Amino acid sequence: MRRHAPAVHRLAAGMVGPGAADDVVQEVFIAVHRALRGFRGDAQFSTWLHRITLNACHKALAARQTLPFGDVPEPAAPHSPVRAGEQAALRDALHAALAALPADQREAVTLRELGGLEYAEIAVLTGAELGTVKSRINRGRAALRAWLSGAGVKP
C-alpha cells in the first residue's frame, strides 16, 4: 500500500478531483485486499491495480451524478494563503478542464500524465488499440491546452 498509494491517489485525483480522491483510494485498497487471492498474475500487478482504480473512479463519478452537491470545490490549504490560493485555483482549473474532456480522453490523459503509464500499458489497461490511445491523449492534451488558455492559465 505504501508503494502504490501515491500513484493511485494521483490517478484518482485526476479522474474524480482531489476532494474525492481519498475516498477512491480507500475503496481501491479495500477492493485489492478482497481480490488479492484471486490475482492470477496474468498481467502486471500495477496494471491490475490501475484497472481497479479506474473502476473505483468510474463508480465514484457515477455516484456523483446522482448527488446535487457533487462539484463542491476543495478548500485551500491553511499554511500560506497566497501560495495555497494560487495552487487551489490552478487545481480547480485543471480539474474543471479534465472534467470537460470526454471520458475516454480524460482516462487516457490521466493514466499518461498523472499515472505515468506508457502508451502500450494504457492500451492494455483500457482495451483500446495503441493508435487509439495515442489519438485520445493527443486530442485530450489539445483540448486541455485550449480550455486552460481560455480560462487564463498560462504555461
Automatic annotation (TrEMBL):
Alphabetically, which GO biological process terms does the record hold?
Answer: DNA-templated transcription initiation
Q: Where is the RNA polymerase sigma factor 70 region 4 type domain?
A: 92-144
* Keywords assigned: DNA-binding, Sigma factor, Transcription, Transcription regulation
**Where in the numbering of this chain does the RNA polymerase sigma-70 region domain appear?**
2-65
Gene Ontology terms for molecular function: DNA binding; sigma factor activity
Which InterPro entries does this chain map to?
Answer: RNA_pol_sigma-70-like, RNA_pol_sigma-70_dom, RNA_pol_sigma70_r2, RNA_pol_sigma70_r4_t2, RNA_pol_sigma_r2, RNA_pol_sigma_r3/r4-like, WH-like_DNA-bd_sf
Q: Which domain of life is it from?
A: Bacteria
NCBIfam families per UniProt: sigma70-ECF
Query: What family is this?
Result: Belongs to the sigma-70 factor family. ECF subfamily.
Q: What is this protein called?
A: RNA polymerase subunit sigma-24
Q: What is the lineage of its organism?
A: Bacteria, Thermotogati, Deinococcota, Deinococci, Deinococcales
